[in-house]
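Hi support team,

I've been running sequence recovery on a batch of backbones for a student project. Most finish fine, but this one hangs at about 90% for roughly twenty minutes before it completes. I'm not sure whether the input is malformed or the queue is just slow. I've pasted the structure tokens below so you can try to reproduce it. Let me know if you need the job ID as well.

Thanks,
M.K.
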């Protein structure tokens, strides 16, 4: 069963979210943290699978995206730090309100996995699993993709922000239009090393990256031009306290034509989704006999 819910952030901003309820008492509760500029509807099939399996699931739109755009995008003050420090913690709090006294997990897609360490309540997570989450460092990308990435980050974003007051990333197939601050930090972090680590000591003064001990699993695809293995390892290093493991999916070995940065969550890839439930099941307490 799906239910629309509102998420109220600490600063008063409200987000749109969808709660997927299992038919019986949940095995646990999972927050799906979206990629940059991706609306929550993109994860509906995946969330339904998790709920049918027995987990309660919450999907949400970050501020400035989809149904959480509460004003003109030109006036939206969102940035990536705000998504991690305000939106994601509030979404987890909402999930905890609806499902108290259970185990909490997070599935992060790209930015959704990169920003977990900014959550003040990340210690509530029993485990997390990330797909396509990496440092996104331009310098580590394959040569054939690096030129395209440099153009988007270092030409399209700044020009779009100046001329339009936001980034029309949908014009180049990069998700929804982005608030100016989100695109600016995205550009800054992908040009640096360690993604969010680029802003440690400046825009990021408090974080949980070095203390978050929840076990984690990281998944990438061999045909992902952004989250390649080198960038993945850079991001895992930022989560210094987490006991991490990772795997690389090869489309042909999975019986798929492609997976890339996005298609793990599409129905064509549902044969891969037990990778998530199998991992989280390791951290679900066995009921007493």
């Amino acid at each position: 069963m799906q239910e629309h819910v509102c998420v109220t952030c600490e600063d008063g901003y409200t987000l749109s979210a969808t709660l997927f309820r299992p038919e019986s008492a949940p095995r646990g509760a999972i927050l799906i943290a979206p990629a940059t500029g991706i609306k929550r509807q993109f994860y509906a099939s995946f969330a339904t699978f998790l709920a049918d399996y027995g987990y309660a699931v919450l999907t949400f739109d970050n501020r400035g995206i989809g149904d959480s755009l509460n004003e003109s995008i030109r006036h939206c003050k969102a940035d990536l730090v705000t998504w991690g420090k305000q939106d994601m913690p509030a979404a987890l709090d909402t999930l905890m309100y609806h499902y108290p006294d259970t185990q909490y997990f997070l599935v992060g897609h790209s930015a959704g996995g990169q920003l977990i360490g900014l959550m003040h309540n990340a210690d509530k997570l029993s485990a997390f699993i990330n797909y396509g989450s990496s440092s996104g460092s331009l310098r580590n990308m394959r040569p054939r993709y690096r030129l395209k990435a440099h153009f988007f980050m270092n030409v399209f974003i700044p020009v779009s922000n100046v001329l339009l007051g936001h980034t029309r990333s949908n014009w180049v197939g990069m998700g929804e239009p982005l608030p100016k601050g989100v695109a600016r930090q995205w550009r800054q972090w992908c040009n640096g090393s360690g993604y969010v680590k680029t802003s440690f000591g400046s825009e990021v003064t408090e974080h949980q990256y070095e203390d978050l001990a929840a076990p984690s699993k990281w998944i990438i695809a061999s045909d992902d031009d952004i989250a390649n293995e080198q960038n993945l390892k850079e991001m895992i290093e930022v989560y210094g306290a987490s006991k991490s493991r990772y795997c690389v999916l090869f489309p042909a070995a999975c019986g798929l034509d492609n997976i890339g940065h996005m298609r793990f969550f599409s129905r064509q890839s549902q044969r891969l989704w037990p990778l998530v439930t199998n991992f989280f099941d390791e951290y679900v307490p066995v009921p007493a006999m």
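--
Follow-up from support: It reproduced on our side and the slowdown came from queue contention, not your input. Residues 104 and 125 are 5 Å apart (CA to CA). No action needed from you.
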